[in-house]
Amino acid sequence: MIKKLFTTLTTVTALTFTALPAQADGLKDLETFLREVGSAQAGFTQVVTSPVRNGETVARRKTSSGRFEFLRPNRFRFEYTKPFEQTIVADGQTLWLYDVDLNQVTARKQQEVLGSTPAALIAAGTDLRALSEVFELKAAPAAEGLEWLEARPRNKDGQLQSVRVGFRAGQLAALEIADSLGQRSVLTFNQWQDNAPMKAERFRFQPPVGADVIRP
After folding, report:
1. Interatomic CA distance for residues 100 and 83, integer angstroms
2. 3-state class of 64 per DSSP?
3. Reduced to 3 states, what is the DSSP secondary structure of residue 11?
4. Which of 175, 193, 146, 170 is nearest to 14 (CA)?
5. Which residues of 167-183 are buried (b: 16+ CB within 10 A; e: fewer)?
């Protein structure tokens, strides 16, 4: 389940290309996103592509979809609805992962799990300077009608290799995540709503009655 979280959080998006230098636009829009978007909600589709194994000719792909919400600082919620139900909730202190089919909940201290992850780009603080202490940030070439920002963790010991964050007209549109095992995860967002009204209570999680709760 933690690997599932890492793949997911593999938390960013695309910007409409303009005639301004890409680097200036990418950093400016990320800074604006961090400063001005305090909450949001959207639908998402996630496609995970795994490396080709020995004896295989085609890479394995897995597609899932659901809803995403966040509230600064450090609160977010992923609700997977297809093909299987799973909920991931960060309440600011604890990261909860609930697998409906297994009726199992895993709870971890949030600060131990989410340091240099895509979630930090989306839902952590509001300061670009602080984010730059965790990630190396640079603009990437515009592609597919999007303008991309690349983030690489300064701590090279983790599984995360890079995150490509794209913005379209100032809105988060896509996340591309690559890990050290060669796995690639792409999240695309739809029906994005900036500064959606929501309260911290939305990100509280209560394990269902009868569920196994694991605290590693």
Report:
1. 12
2. strand
3. coil
4. 146
5. bbebbbbbbbbbbeeeb
| pTM exceeds 0.70 | yes
Closest CA to 84 of 64, 62, 60: 64
Per-residue b or e along 91-111, where b marks 16 or more CB atoms closer than 10 Å to that residue's CB: bbebbbbbbeeeeebbbbebe
Listed residue (214, 209, 208, 199) closest to 77, CA to CA:
199
Separation CA 76–CA 89 (nearest Å): 6
Residue located via tokens 């799973």: 86
pLDDT per residue of the chain (216 residues) written in tens, 0 to 9: 545 544 554 432 222 222 223 343 777 778 888 889 999 999 999 999 998 887 777 888 999 999 999 999 889 999 999 999 999 999 999 999 999 999 999 999 988 887 667 877 787 767 788 888 888 998 888 788 787 889 999 888 888 899 999 988 878 899 999 998 899 999 999 999 999 899 999 999 999 999 999 998
